[in-house]
């Protein structure tokens, strides 16, 4: 996504901070340990902040969302910085469009919002590999992430040198909005507990940002977390959710910071969702009460999330609960501003509480933006898995004796088709074992679908009927790398040998199917309808085009209803909207912001990559999707109880 120049002009931002004016003000931001407060320009300062990740909200909507956050009475905005997005390949940096963090800082300043910056390098945030770039595992498979391991530190050094030099001019003391900077992220929950690493990171940040910048750390509200999370010279803060006893929950912070302001750096007004587990909601009354209790004792609070947004594309991660549980595409989070940026009842209740403590700006009260139900789009079946192998969509095939991981193939996300020719005489049936599967595999023998294996379902073996010379293939899907804990070194694909009847299978051909370059998908738009019908269990591609009888200014956000489809990925006008899996739930619709759509008379192009089963196997007329005006995030799920408690994932 690219920011059109016009947007910058509309917002009246010339791209530069008014440094002259600000210097006159003699800006300063610090901690007053005598009066247990922050001090901004010599005045006591307390913040009520909200998290909005720039990488989860279309850049066109940043001004709208920030205005609404300011209108709720917030005086600070919080975001992580995601290394993986900014350095997709070693030494290749991206800071444009949706990754333009400087624009984010400038907009925040424009809306009189200060910024709490959490640059990681590890961030969790339910992102693929907790925001670390996958290629760390390609360059050094034995790398020790989040430790003082030379190999890891060398890459952090390079990245942080680039990042911190961009951040420095935006520090509060330098005329920008950034008041505090977090070191690492909930490090006290990470078992290696390498204090040399956190001290090194602290010093590296100070060396680049200057000695005056207020650094902080965040950990769970227990002495056990702070024990390792506390970094000398870095202000320790805690996190806890709605329904907690505010006075009690701040006590652990006091055990490690004898004086200074109470700070909850992640107050959870909602919670995240995983595929196959019920939608989480957090009671508005609990949020209001805990927030009020915290503000009443002068605490500074940052709400995680205030606006969650969407994990577009393949960016969402997975939780290590039940060994492996992938997160959904939506990051609505039951937050005060919902996924589409509309204020909820919770928003207004929170605004009311904040108004008791901070002045509300003289802004109009936000209302929900219009949504559109553009209706049904008919889709054509154009290709299947086997057709793709000879097109630009598939990467160059690679041979090796034993299976290679995505990381050793240099592939971040998507799928890899692993194939081998069987040699020998096997019992009927024989057991195929795929112990190192990450994360989901479709088995084919001579191109015929033979079943699904699944890491999240702990299904790692399957009986097969196979004979000499037959071709055995496994299409392996990466469902997102684990986002936190000791499992973040989450190699994808076939991570150990595959055996048939106990014998190791060798001589593999790898067909990369990364679906990361929208240019290659253009090829699908050129081809006509495919003959025959899609086959269950065989990846099938569908395309459809539609025009919207509205001009640019009349376009509205919408939701793609995938009810009736099984599991896959949707692409609109070359943008990956994210993974869908309505049969697993709870998410049934995908959010489509209006700027992803084209106005009349242009045609919009939709591509569905369906892995399992389409509604058109028997009935061509059923080959449709529908753009609807309301999201469905609370669909039915196979599991009726969540595998983790709300607000508990520190391990
Ligand atoms: C700026 O702040 C410093 C330190 O707080 C103070 O010594 C100095 O007098 C201030 N300058 C102005 C122009 O206010
Ligand atoms: C920011 O604050 C200044 C000074 O209080 C005010 O004049 C200005 O209108 C505010 N800007 C916005 C966008 O609220
Ligand atoms: C909160 O701040 C006010 C004003 O500085 C002070 O009077 C009060 O004692 C503080 N309350 C707590 C619980 O620290
Ligand atoms: C897409 O993935 C391939 C490897 O699978 C990689 O070489 C290429 O650079 C990636 N392209 C983009 C745009 O990330
Ligand atoms: C696969 O088996 C071969 C032969 O026993 C062995 O050398 C290799 O390390 C194994 N690979 C993995 C990933 O376990
Ligand atoms: C867009 O369409 C609306 C309603 O049809 C109309 O009122 C408006 O003038 C149009 N705007 C432009 C720029 O054509
Ligand atoms: C989504 O589609 C299903 C099946 O056609 C339908 O029953 C459901 O009402 C739709 N949901 C919305 C929000 O329109």
TrEMBL record:
Where is the catalytic site? 186 (proton donor), 266 (nucleophile)
- Organism superkingdom: Eukaryota
Annotated GO molecular function terms are: beta-galactosidase activity
Q: Tell me which family the UniProt entry assigns to this protein.
A: Belongs to the glycosyl hydrolase 35 family.
Instruction: Tell me which positions the record assigns to the signal sequence.
Output: 1-16
The protein's matches in PANTHER family, at most eight in alphabetical order, are given as: BETA-GALACTOSIDASE RELATED
Q: Which reaction does it catalyse?
A: Hydrolysis of terminal non-reducing beta-D-galactose residues in beta-D-galactosides
Please provide the Gene Ontology terms (biological process) for this protein.
galactose catabolic process
Pinpoint the Glycoside hydrolase 35 catalytic domain residues.
37-356
Q: What is this protein called?
A: Beta-galactosidase
Q: Domain (Beta-galactosidase galactose-binding): give its ranges.
A: 541-599
User: What are the UniProt keywords, alphabetically?
Assistant: Glycoprotein, Glycosidase, Hydrolase, Signal
InterPro entries noted in UniProt: B-gal_1-like (IPR026283), BetaGal1-like_ABD1 (IPR048912), BetaGal_gal-bd (IPR048913), Galactose-bd-like_sf (IPR008979), GH (IPR017853), Gly_Hdrlase_35_cat (IPR031330), Glyco_hydro_35_CS (IPR019801), Glycoside_Hdrlase_35 (IPR001944)
Q: Which GO terms describe its cellular component?
A: vacuole
